[in-house]
Each structure stands twice: as structure tokens, then as C-alpha cells.
Amino acid sequence: MRLLAVAAPLLLIAAAASGPGDTSLLPPSGYLGTWSLDGKPRVFPGSELYGHIDGGAEIFFEFGFEETTVQRYRSPAGELVVECYRMSDPLAALGIYLGKCGTESPDTGLAEKHTAGRYQLMFVRDRYFVVVNNPAGTPALVPTLTELARFIAGRLPPSQPVTVFDALPKAGLVEGSQRLIRGPVALEAIATLGRGDILRLGGRITAVAGDYSDGRGKHTVIVATYPDARAAAAAFRNLTARLDPEIKTLAGGDGRLVFRDYDGTFGTALLAGDRLEIRLRLQTQPALK
Amino acid sequence: MGRSHVSMDVIFDMNRRELVQTLAGCTAAASLMLAAPGCRKAKEAVPEVETNIADFLKVPKTPHSLPGPFPGKVVKVTDPRSLVDEKIDGKVVAEMVERGIRTLTGTTMEKSFRMFFTPDDVVGLKVNPVGPPLISTKPEVAEAVIRWLTDNKLPAKNIVIWDRFDLDLKDAGFTPDRFPGVRIEALQTMVEEGQSFRDAAGNHISAGNFDPNVYYFAKGVVGKGVRGYRDDEFYLNQHVFAGEYSYYGRLLTRDITKLVNLAAYKNTGNGISMATKNLGYAAICNTGRLHAPLFFRVCTEVLAAPPVRDKLVLNLTDGLRGQYEGGPDKNEKFVYANHSLYFATDPFALDMLCHRELVAKRKEMGIAVNEHPRFTEYLVYAESLGLGVTDPARITLVKA
Questions:
Q1: A109-130 pLDDT, tens digit each
Q2: Closest Cα partner for A94 from A81, A113, A120?
């Protein structure tokens, strides 16, 4: 009997593992006694993500997307929907998560970096961004969101420490404002600096951004660290040459650019070795030299 | 594993900035645009996309043409009782709808009905069923509008709740059980992976739902090899046609005689996905090709075509809940109780007002907002075409 009790769940998991997509990560029918799979998983590899989130797919592609698996569950208590987004690498998953999590509202029952609400729980672990949905917002199902997330997280490799934000200045950084950027879609959420991949990140170089608050008001800092000084210089040249027409250059040359943005605030771009640092929304005009 | 590289090409070859700058390059409309007050001239040479907007503009307007009898006027009705403990109160919503319509028109519900409709009309209610229940059009709003119509002798069978795709209507609560006697229709079906979307003749099963004689044309922009789509078959499944033409749904061109636009209240990136986008990307097929080169411009030009321009009599944006970030997909983290409904005959004034309101909300929530002018230039363009009033100084907001 004991062997059967152990073997039955394993068999169920093995059955799930044989399906398409990342179904091996998902609970099988019978989960928590009452939950059963509601239909087959829907798998959206590569560009087919447009078929799942037409209006929001570009940011996934920019960070590096592989495949999404969507599975509905049903029980007498209601319905839940799991979306597992497998990204190309852990920073890609973190980049998506940071763009969607807002101010985190954690649940003590989950150790992963996550935010939980009544309708949705989203978390990031390794190279997976996972959303567990409670479509009807049924309050009684909120604990099950956490349980489901724990089940899935337990089947993923652990996340590694993130050091990429060390590039940002510490003083004045608004906690929770950190973002990752790998191309124009993520950049545009922060600022319009110019057409196309103006910072030449190419989906491979990960820039970091954060908001700052100090005695002179609020501003935003973006730091991109390139493979070498040559690549950074090329990005700086591209920025200065293709700067958005709404931006007026006030001073330039020698790896430094001072400009006034469309809204009357000021900005700077500073090239230093392999690093390009951009400051935006400065309330006072920086020195021109 | 290699798919992500394909996907990245989608982004890095795409210049969405061109979309607004090409406004000035729009051959047919350029003179109109540049002559318009407040219309800014593009500052860099960009490829032109020629559309058939000039053909639309040649068609004489009717008494019901946009911007309708109240250009630049937006009514906002707010009632905290409308959404309590995540539950919509249909009775309060009905009161809000009546208050909004009466304030907009300045007369009774009966006279308001006669201002826009006759009992012989076939009235289409364009809902936004995406992202239920958080950020989709609430069925309670549609119910209140339907009650107004039927109370004034419009038969229920002359009312059509519709969207472009059939996938989401049921999930959003637009079912025959809830709306007995009312038609619930979509312009097209998107077939699940592994099933054929072609009929015996090899055409898309939804091809007959679109009018080959009424179209939005974008020269050189075709639905073949569109970046982001695995192949042309995948594109066709989702978009029905793939050439330079995006046909309007027959429902709009041949069936519906009046249109009521019931939009959701949410952002899409730094812009909004509300009244004009609810129709701009839903009234036609073959839209995947348009996103990269034209994007928001579509929200103006598709509404300029007579089947929309001359039938769209009322816009009601459902802001009972709002989403200020993370859109157009639903994201609970950014959804808030806004307790408001917005009414206008002028969808462009409505969107300009809501855009500015949502920007203010984003700032209030601590977001460093990118307010670049490109995100509202399609609205400025609409004013230059005579479709609405979008200069904030000339928009009248009435709170009721």
C-alpha cells in the first residue's frame, strides 16, 4: 500500500512529463485531491506567443523567449490557469518579471521572488517567469495560487544571485524601481531616445535602470556595460547620431552629451571605457563642459 | 533554443518610431495634417506608407458622422458604489449610464435615443472582451445600454454584441444566457493549432465575413513574411487575408446601421488601448502587418472610413476598473478601482482625455512616465482630419 501511495503520484507526474511544452513542471490531475486538468496544455513556442498575448509579446522576444505552456485546471471550487514562460536565460526571466511585478506584495508561503494578489500570482525562478491566475478572483482560491506556485518552483533549478544591478549607483536609488533593458521595447517604457536599438544592446547586452530621488528631485539612471570600450563607443556614437528629434543637444563631444528632452527636463550621456551611463529627467541643467 | 534569436530579429529590425513620423509622410493626408493647429511637422525623413485615407475623406459626411453632435465633449460619471469588494453593482452602473447619456446629450433618455437611433436600426455594441474580469468591458455596462435601446422600442434581435475574435466573448460574460434575444457575434474565428482554418475551397472559413469592397489599404505593407509570425499560414489563420488590403467586417458594412463603442480603460505601453483602438484594430482583418509600420495611425484612419465614421454614434469607455501599467494584457498589479464611466460622441476627445488621466495616474503611482508626443500624435492627426477635437484646451470635461 505504501509503495502504491508513493508510486501513484510519480506515475501521474511521469504521465504529465510526456506531454508537450513544460508540462513536466505542472501538477497532474488529482492535485490537492480535487484539481483536474481542464483540456490539453496550450504550447506557444517562439513567435507563436503572438497567439497567446498578441499585444504584449514583443518584450518577451526582446529579452529572449523560448516557449510558453498554458494549462487550465478545474475543481468544484473554481478554475485556475497556469502560464509558464521559459526564457532564454535567468536575466531574461527577471527582466520580464521586473517589468510586470510593480510594487511586490509577497505571500509568506513562497520563497521565490514573487508578487501575489487575488487574481494573479507571478514569480521568477531560474529562467522561468510563471503566472498563476485565479480568473474569477475567488478569495477562497488565493492559498491555492501559492500552493501551485510552490509546486512548480520546486521543479525548477534554483535562481542564482543577481549582480547586474551593482552597476547602478547606490545613493538615492528608489527601491523597487530597478529594471532591465535589452532593446528598444524595454527602453521605450522608460524613455524615447531615438529610433530602433539606439543603445545597441542587440538583445544580448543587459542594461540596468533605476529611479533616483535626492535633494534636487527625481531622475532616472540607465547604465549599459558593453563587452569592451569599442562597443560602448559605438553605442555612444549611435546615440548621438540618431538622437530623437524631440531631444535638443546642448553640448557634445569627448564622450559626453548634454541634452534637453521633449518635456523640458535635462539629460546626460557619459561614456567611460566599456560603460555608458545615461541620466534622464534631471530638473536642473547640468554643466555643459 | 534557437527560436529566441528569430524572435529578437522581430524587435531589432522593427522601427515603431516610424509610425508617428510617417504621419507627416502620409501622402494623402499630409496637407491636412500640416495645416492643422498644433500639428507638429516630422523632423526626419522616414519611409512613407501610402494609405487610402484620401478615399475615405472624399465621401461626404452624414448627420451622424464623427465627431457627432458633441465634438470635444466628454462626460465622466463616477460612483464609488459601482464596484465594491470586487463586485460590480449592475443597478448602480445602470444609473451611471443614464446619468452619463443624459449629461452628454442634455436631454431625456428617450430624446437621446432619437438623437442617435431609430427603432429600425441594427445597433452593434463593440465590446472589449480581453482580460476578463479585471479589465474587459463589463457585461453590466452592455446590459444598461441594451436596456436603454429596448426601452425605446429597438428590438433585442436588432442588437449585436460583437468583437473581432470569437475566442474571448464567452469568458468575458457575453453569452446567450446572459443576453437573451441579443445577437452575439465575432468577425472571425481563429482555429486552434493542428486544425485547418480553410474551407473546402481553400479559403479561410471566416473570409466571407469580410467585405471585399470596403477596405483599409496600406501600400507595400503586406501580411506575408510578417516578422513575429512563424510562417504565412500561421499569419493567415489569425488574420484571414494577407495582402495590402484589410477588409472591413460585413457586420459593419452591410448589417449594423449604428455603432456603440464600449471600450475598456487601460494602457498599452506608453499609450492607451481604449476607444479608438477598440475599433481601429477590430473593425478590419489583416492587422498584424500594420503594427510595426503604422500602429496608432490605424486607430485614426480605420475610424475615418464611412462604415465607422458615419455609424459610430456613441462611445462609452468602461473605467469602472482601470489599468495604468502592464497593458494591454491584464495585470492585477496595476488594476485599480476607478469607479467611472466616460461618455462621448467624439472618440478622439475621449481618448485624449483618458490618456492624460492615465498619465496622471501613472505619475501618482510613482512611475517615471515617458510622455513623448509620439504617443498622442494619432489623436492630433484625427483632429486635422476633422474627426474630433483633441487639443486639451478645447476639450470640455463634464463630471456628473
A1: 899 999 999 999 999 999 999 9
A2: A113
Detail the DSSP E strand segments found in A22-127. Answer: 36-37, 42-45, 65-75, 78-87, 113-116, 120-125
Chain A nearest C-alpha distance from B314 (Å): 26
| ipTM for the complex shown | 0.84
Q: How far is A53 from chain B (nearest CA, A)?
A: 7
Q: Which stretch of A102-106, A234-238, B102-106, B309-313 has the lowest confidence by average pLDDT?
A: A102-106
Q: Is B134 in Cβ contact with A55 (below 8 Å)?
A: no
Binary contact (A47, B228; C-beta < 8 A):
yes
Q: Which whole-number Å values give the CA distances from A139 to A78, A108, A168, B87, in the listed order?
A: 11, 17, 39, 12
pTM: 0.87
Domain boundary among A102, A129, A153: A153
A275: containing domain: 164-282
A189 touches chain B (CB under 8 A): yes
**Contact status, residue A102 vs residue A93, Cβ threshold 8 Å:** no
Q: Which of A28-37, B33-42, B71-80, B215-224 has the lowest mean pLDDT?
A: B33-42
* A38 and A146 share one domain: yes
For residues A210 and A270, state if they share a domain: yes
Q: Considering only alpha carbons, which residue of chain B is nearest residue A219?
A: B368
Residue B6, pLDDT > 50, answer: no
Q: What's the pLDDT tens digit per position in B137-151?
A: 999 999 999 999 999
The pLDDT, as a whole number, for residue A254 is 85
Residue A76 lies in a domain: yes
pLDDT digits (tens, 9 = 90+) for A47-82: 778 777 767 888 999 999 999 999 999 999 999 999
Last residue in a domain, options A99, A126, A153: A153
Same domain, A128 and A188: no
What does the angle CA A71 – CA A114 – CA B168 come to, to the nearest 5 degrees? 35
Interface of B with A in 204-233 (CB under 8 A): 228-230
Residues A72 and A177 in one domain: no
The CATH number that applies at residue A270 is 3.40.1000
In the 8-state DSSP scheme, what is residue B284?
Answer: B
Same domain, A101 and A211: no
Whether A148 and A174 share a structural domain: no
CA closest to B239 among chain A residues: A51
Q: Which residue of A has its CA nearest to B367?
A: A177
Contact assessment for residue A182 and residue A204, using Cβ atoms and an 8 Å cutoff: yes
Asked if residues A16 and A53 have their Cβ atoms less than 8 Å apart, the reply is: no
Q: Do A94 and A29 sit in the same domain of this protein?
A: yes
The pLDDT, as a whole number, for residue A19 is: 57
Say whether residue A183 is in contact with chain B using an 8 A CB cutoff.
yes
Please state the domain count of chain A. Answer: 2
- Mean per-residue pLDDT for B357-366? 95
Q: What is the DSSP letter of A242?
A: T
Tell whether A149 and A170 lie within a shared domain.
Answer: no
